[in-house]
Write a structure and sequence with these properties.
Blueprint lengths: L6 H7 L5 H15 L6 E5 L5 H8 L3 E6 L2 H13 L5 E4 L11 E6 L10 H13 L1 E13 H7 L4 E7 L2 E12 L4 E12 L2 E15 L1 H10 L2 E8 L13 E8 L1
Parallel strand pairs: 1-2, 1-4, 2-3, 4-5, 5-9
Antiparallel strand pairs: 5-11, 6-7, 7-8, 8-9, 10-11
Bound molecules: S-adenosylmethionine.
The site of S-adenosylmethionine has 20 residues, from helix 3 and strand 2.
Length: 252
């Protein structure tokens, strides 16, 4: 199980991630790619709620889905603190069953990459389709295969100083070119002074995607691909060194 105790440190790891700019980008996509008015948004793999709370503050009606209860409990407490009404659901997006449809769906920060087999990917896409109204946009980001293969994942260590002490995260990637995945072996150490107070090991298996396969899976499962762009950049064509991409598609 990933995103279990790792969730406690998630917001510290990504404190510099600009969720507001990403929500601006989502709204820019709404402006450019649909004439439909958007109220209800479904956030798949909403995690600790970084996008859900900001989009709710901007006046949208948000529902968030995640399969990690520990991630969701952080999201719930943020919404509560800000007095926002957001429906959070503990569900697997590969077997999604909400009694509702939405005007748009988002799945941000490589969530689709966690759906590693073709079967899981199709289950996830079908679930999104069933919960979108006709013409509804689905926006997700992920790793672009050509960049992963040309740049190659490397070992990284991140050290974060927090009020609760020092957190050290070591990531060791293993590239699997047959299955289009990178297995990332995370080791997280939480130190207070010289005392180790927590240690976590988690393996995150992340799929990277190629243009033609994304188009194929989307079209096969009831979506029209509108654009694949570099992440956060609509005006430039995706290139071999763009590791992160944004995919924009519409339910047909
Ligand atoms: C990298 S985090 C991104 C969280 C959030 N979207 C953000 O931008 O901070 C990936 C999230 O996807 C969730 N996730 C992965 N596969 C999922 C699935 N099949 N169904 C629901 N949630 C899933 C994980 O539990 C985790 O919270």
């Amino acid at each position: 199980m990933v995103f279990n105790r790792y969730s406690n440190y998630y917001d510290s790891f990504y404190a510099e991630k600009d969720y507001a700019a990403e929500c601006d980008f989502v709204e820019l996509i709404f402006d450019k790619f649909t004439d439909q008015s958007i109220k209800g948004i479904l956030d798949l793999g909403c995690g600790t709620g970084g996008h859900t709370v900001l989009l709710a503050q901007r006046g949208y009606q948000l529902s968030g889905v995640d399969l990690s209860e520990s991630m969701l409990s952080i999201a719930r407490s943020k919404a509560k603190e800000l007095s926002l009404t957001i429906d959070y659901h503990l569900q697997d997006m590969r077997q999604l069953h909400l009694e509702q449809t939405f005007d748009a769906a988002v799945s941000m920060f490589a969530v689709m990459g966690y759906q590693t087999s073709n079967y899981d990917l199709e289950q996830a896409i079908q679930g999104v389709r069933q919960h979108l109204s006709p013409g509804g946009l689905f926006i997700f980001d992920g790793w672009f295969g050509p960049a992963v293969l040309s740049e190659r994942p490397v070992e990284r260590t991140k050290i974060i100083e927090t009020d609760a002490g020092r957190i050290i995260r070591h990531a060791r990637p293993e590239l699997d070119v047959v299955n289009h995945v990178v297995k990332v072996f995370y080791n997280v150490l939480h130190l207070q002074g010289h005392t180790l107070i927590d240690e976590i090991d988690e393996v995150h298996t992340m799929r990277f995607f190629f243009y033609q396969e994304i188009e194929y899976f989307l079209e096969k499962n009831g979506f029209e691909l509108l654009k694949i762009s570099p992440f956060m950049e609509l005006d430039r064509a995706i290139a071999v060194d763009d590791w992160n991409m944004t995919v924009i598609c519409r339910r047909v």
